[in-house]
Specification:
It is a single chain. This protein is α+β, with helices and mostly antiparallel strands. About 20% of the residues lie in helices and about 25% in strands. It has one domain (about 1-180). The chain contains 4 helices and 11 strands; from the N terminus they run ββαβααββββββββα. The protein has a 6-stranded antiparallel sheet with strand order 6-11-7-8-9-10. The protein has a 3-stranded mixed sheet with strand order 1-2-3. It has a two-stranded antiparallel ribbon with strand order 4-5. A hairpin with a 2-residue loop joins strand 9 and strand 10. Helix 2 (about 70-80) packs across helix 4. The longest helix is centred in the middle third of the chain and has 14 residues, at about 70-80. The protein is globular, with a radius of gyration of 16 Å.
């Protein structure tokens, strides 16, 4: 689960905006027994992802409260990827990610050879989203990964995962993958 910094819905539970702030986080579904009514008026809008790799492709980072261990691991790889002297603060990462995930209301993407990408990245091929995993490309659907295709080395693809997150993957961060991708 995650959110984008606040309420994206109105009192009729209709989505009225793409995001509220730069703080796009990925949370766990259960934390300290807390219960929420989905899309409760004037509260943040819950977003649900198949797995952490999907949340990353959307431009979210681990929550510092409910996913502290993953958040700290992400910070360490962010530091390495950006060659920083000190560990970054959440605001620093959120500011860096924001320009890499959305521009004028549209998702930011870029091209790369699929063979050059680390595990965990999402790419788009012929309008479909695929997870890069080992020597395979896994076709994503809302129900799970439904097909495993061989990963060609030289094929140029549209990369959906923001560049800074790809940099974290290159530095050793391993996103959690849904069981259908195993």
């Amino acid at each position: 689960m995650g959110n984008r910094g606040g309420a994206l819905h109105n009192t009729g539970r209709e989505i009225v905006r793409v995001y509220k702030s730069r703080r796009w986080i990925a949370c766990v579904l259960e934390f300290r027994g807390r219960r929420r009514e989905v899309m409760y008026p004037n509260r943040y809008t819950e977003l649900f992802f198949l797995d952490e790799a999907v949340a990353f492709a959307a431009g979210h980072r681990p929550c510092a409260e409910c996913r502290r261990e993953r958040y700290n691991a992400f910070k360490r790889t962010w530091q390495l990827a950006h060659r920083l002297d000190d560990l970054p603060f959440a605001d620093e990462m959120d500011l860096g990610l924001h320009s890499e995930r959305i521009d004028k209301g549209k998702k930011v993407t870029y091209g790369a050879a699929v063979g050059s990408l680390p595990n965990g990245c999402f790419v788009q091929i012929n309008g479909c989203a695929y997870l890069v995993l080992g020597s395979s490309l896994l076709l994503w659907t809302p129900e799970g990964y439904t097909r495993r295709d061989p990963r060609p080395k030289d094929l140029r693809v549209t990369v959906l995962t923001p560049k800074s997150i790809v940099g974290c993957f290159r530095q050793g961060y391993r996103p959690q993958i849904h069981g259908t991708g195993q």
